[in-house]
Amino acid sequence: MDELVERFLAGDRRALARIISRVESESGEGRECLRQLYPHSGKAHIIGITGGAGAGKSTLTGALAAEYRRRGKTLGIVAVDPSSPFTHGAILGDRIRMQELTLDPGVYMRSMAGRGALGGLAPTIDDVVAVMDAFGFDYVIIETVGAGQDEVEIAGLALTTILVNNPGTGDDIQALKAGIIEIADILVVNKADHPGADVLVSQLQALLSLAPAGARRPPILKTTALKAEGLAELADAIGEHGAYLAQSGELERRRADDARQQVLSIARQILLERIRAATSEEELAELVLRVAARKLDPHSAAEQLAGNVLR
Amino acid sequence: MDELVERFLAGDRRALARIISRVESESGEGRECLRQLYPHSGKAHIIGITGGAGAGKSTLTGALAAEYRRRGKTLGIVAVDPSSPFTHGAILGDRIRMQELTLDPGVYMRSMAGRGALGGLAPTIDDVVAVMDAFGFDYVIIETVGAGQDEVEIAGLALTTILVNNPGTGDDIQALKAGIIEIADILVVNKADHPGADVLVSQLQALLSLAPAGARRPPILKTTALKAEGLAELADAIGEHGAYLAQSGELERRRADDARQQVLSIARQILLERIRAATSEEELAELVLRVAARKLDPHSAAEQLAGNVLR
Predict the structure, then answer these.
(1) ipTM value > 0.90
(2) pLDDT attached to residue B172
(3) Angle at CA B254, nearest 5°, toward B252 and B257?
(4) Pick from B78, B225, B129, B169: nearest CA to A175
(5) Are B259 and A292 inside 8 Å of each other by CB?
(6) Is the CATH number of domain B42-248 3.40.50.300?
(7) Across the interface, do B38 and A303 touch by the CB < 8 Å criterion?
């Protein structure tokens, strides 16, 4: 076994940081580390926190982390939100809390770039989460900005997805498209001290009442993350959701579904890389030119590319 | 050559409808039709119309179509918006205008399902647009609801992308994320008779002034689609954008970029289908189970699947 992985398994945080960097660079070295440490993963409770800009996701993440630390739990945090105070832009109170967390040996934070202005998680986020999981953290929290694509992807990655809602933006409910609410395991109305909070809770309840009978109805919780209020209840609700997943058999189903999606997605990526390697830039450029000039249709061009690597 | 394609090229609208259905079903027959008619495509000006719910996209599409008919031009319309009045939900005035268009032999309309509640165009939309293009329409208009993913995809498909904005929703500018505005070739403030229209125009101008120097700045036009006002100016602006693309060399670059993306995307799809065909459901299920149980890492599992089809 790799010496770096040995140090990682012994709890060396510098080894953790180096392995994450390797995995993020999508190097062969990173994949080898991942292969060796993967059997140690699968124990952490992965929590996704998502919601619109300004909903207070980062503050909530920090406050939830502090709550878990009070309970003696360890955690990894991955912030994909580009405006996350983990990287910059925090208000002072947040920044102090974040600094406390940064100095805490029971917490490991990492920020990751998203796929660009229009959303989508980094392709290596599954691997980064698996590394943190294997390191032995009790919880891994992924905080991501609520663009549509991110929210779908986070639900495929997290066991418990928390959708943070913000009263007083005036268009709260409008923004909750039917599809978005379906991926949420827990709904949080943050800034519960805001006068519009109770209205928002009622609106969410009304929206949930439209869900098909028999479907699990996500609980709606109120928090005021800035004052650390409602966090014990949120941590309890996350625990209850985890227990529900395990008892209902849903956990096993989800793990299998997620594994299937992930394996097929990586396989597709591998094949695409092979096509790129097997096709010279001239061949590709010439094919593309013929398609652009309408001399060849794109399906026939794609068949030719695929033919370069397929049996 | 296929007899259906012959009838299609002779201008038979029933042949057009049948070929679109074949292409949408992703059948081998559909691909063969596409192969034969593809050389006849590439002449239509493809226009994408996108924007938030309630911005008046459908009314604008109908009014723009009527303007082109007055100019003696023919057009195909693809409505991806699930709430489009082309399918249902139109107010009366719209519905009458739509019916007129439906009876017009110079217009062909088709509605397509999107990829689901969370956005994304149907995977076959490129092919459907190519078929309409090859049929000989002067313009093909794609109308899509403004979810983030749709908007990125429509910009890769349309030569001219029109972002429709709606005054008076209170959160107009907030909704215009930096990335979204970058894909717009023309900005339209619809419902120009609304008191907030001029404020919205100023806000958009301020937003555009932040664009990097040297970049083409999209024009901002005011329309009142319900009263058919501002449509001649919009049609002129679309024509000017088309001329700009051709003169600047941007047209050729875009066509090549789009062809490259499309070919690689289809190639990836072909490879995934081959993997599915070459891998028994038992083998896949067993691999997935081992990954879910953390006995095998997903990269190694994916390598095994890829190995089933690679040379």
Answers:
(1) no
(2) 45
(3) 110
(4) B169
(5) yes
(6) yes
(7) no
